[in-house]
């Protein structure tokens, strides 16, 4: 029996499709602009439409493939449970890094989903003990571009046991061979991790940094780059070497739907709009707006939700109109 799909709500080239059943050529998959399915629309639209892709918001499978059953489609609640579990693992792994039980971790996820917040929150909790003891905090979060020698010096500064260095969106490190080799040495799984700088440097002399040292600290590298999807053979070899040296946590926020449900999840806990003091109606307005406009918003992120909350507080009656002009792409 040929599998069919009933598209309850979807679009094809900007035209709405509602409650229409098609022969399904390929199951629903995630795309850059949302979920889509490949169907045979020739019976309805003519022979030129024998194979088209339809963006789907809501759908039902009808029948089954001859070769294999259609893949299981996650419900919203299942997706939110999966995402929540990943972020709980992130918190647990960060605590283990502070304790020295985990020496290296790479965290991968799209921008604006709270991956940095979770790491920094756990580190700040651990840093309270440093504050009470009147000593410098045993961790640092480094953001932005970094040169190879800057990376070497920073690793030396946090080379002692129970020190934690977090690189947050320092993706320039991944694009430089020397930086990558230094990082690989710091993340190595061997008991002794010795890092070398085999070149003369006034910076090292002036700052009292030796040409080699043993790194006993821990490193967390937070990035938007999904290592599995990198196509450059040269860079992929380096990233594979990094993954073999440390724990690699992919937060699995790969689709627009995943990112939206992450935002909905945070809003549900009450932590997203707490400082705005808005009631449930106001929160629901923002979440519904983001869902309805998801493919036109400039980004689907926690930052976007906060921008919309700012607009709603600024102009309770016109915020949606203002958002159309400031937060959304042109039609």
What does this structure look like?
Helices cover 40% and strands 22% of the residues. Helix 2 (76-99) packs parallel to helix 3 and helix 2 packs across helix 8. A hairpin with a 2-residue loop joins strand 1 and strand 2. It is built from eleven helices and twelve strands. With 331 residues, it is of the alpha/beta class. The two termini are 40 Å apart. It has helices at 42-45, 76-99, 115-133, 148-157, 177-187, 202-207, 233-245, 256-268, 280-292, 302-314, 319-326; strands at 4-12, 15-17, 20-31, 34-39, 52-62, 104-108, 139-143, 164-168, 194-196, 212-214, 218-223, 247-250.
Summarize the structure.
The chain is α/β, with parallel strands linked by helices and 331 residues long. The protein folds into 3 domains: 4-71, no CATH class; 77-250, 3-Layer(aba) Sandwich (Rossmann fold); 256-326, no CATH class. The protein has helices spanning 42-45, 76-99, 115-133, 148-157, 177-187, 202-207, 233-245, 256-268, 280-292, 302-314, 319-326; strands at residues 4-12, 15-17, 20-31, 34-39, 52-62, 104-108, 139-143, 164-168, 194-196, 212-214, 218-223, 247-250.
Report the sheet-strand fraction: 15-25%
CATH architecture of the largest domain: 3-Layer(aba) Sandwich
Biggest β-sheet: count, sense, barrel?
A: 5 strands, antiparallel
Q: Give the CATH superfamily of the largest domain.
A: P-loop containing nucleotide triphosphate hydrolases
Q: What is the string of helix and strand elements?
A: EEEEHEHEHEHEHEHEEHEHHHH
* Uncertain stretches: none
* Number of domain modules: 3
């Amino acid at each position: 029996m040929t599998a069919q799909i009933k598209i309850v709500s979807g679009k094809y080239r900007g035209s709405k499709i509602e409650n229409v059943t098609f022969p399904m050529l390929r199951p629903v998959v995630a795309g850059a602009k949302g979920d889509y399915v490949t169907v045979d629309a020739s019976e309805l639209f003519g022979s030129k439409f024998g194979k088209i892709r339809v963006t789907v918001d809501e759908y039902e499978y009808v029948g089954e493939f001859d070769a294999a059953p259609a893949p299981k489609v996650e419900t919203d609640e299942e997706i939110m449970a999966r995402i929540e579990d990943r972020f709980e693992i992130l918190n647990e792994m960060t605590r283990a890094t502070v304790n020295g039980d985990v020496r290296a971790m790479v965290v991968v996820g799209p921008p604006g989903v709270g991956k940095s917040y979770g790491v920094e929150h756990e580190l700040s909790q651990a840093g309270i003990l440093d504050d009470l003891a009147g000593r410098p905090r045993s961790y640092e979060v480094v953001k932005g571009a970094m040169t190879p020698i800057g990376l070497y010096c920073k690793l030396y500064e946090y080379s002692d046991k129970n020190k934690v260095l977090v690189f947050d969106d320092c993706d320039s490190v991944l694009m430089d061979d020397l930086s990558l080799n230094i990082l690989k040495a710091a993340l190595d799984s061997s008991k002794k991790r010795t890092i070398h700088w085999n070149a003369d440097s006034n910076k090292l002399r002036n700052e009292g940094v030796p040409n080699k040292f043993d790194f006993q600290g821990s490193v967390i590298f937070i990035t938007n780059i999904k290592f599995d999807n990198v196509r450059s053979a040269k860079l992929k070899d380096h990233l594979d070497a990094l993954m073999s040296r440390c724990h690699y946590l992919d937060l699995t926020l790969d689709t627009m739907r995943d990112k939206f449900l992450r935002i909905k999840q945070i809003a549900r806990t009450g932590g997203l709009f707490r400082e705005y003091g808005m009631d449930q109606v106001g929160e629901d307005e923002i979440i519904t707006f983001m869902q309805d406009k998801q493919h036109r918003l400039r980004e689907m992120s926690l930052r976007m939700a906060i921008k919309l909350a700012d607009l709603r507080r600024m102009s309770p009656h016109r915020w949606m109109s203002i958002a159309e002009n400031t937060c959304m792409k042109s039609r």
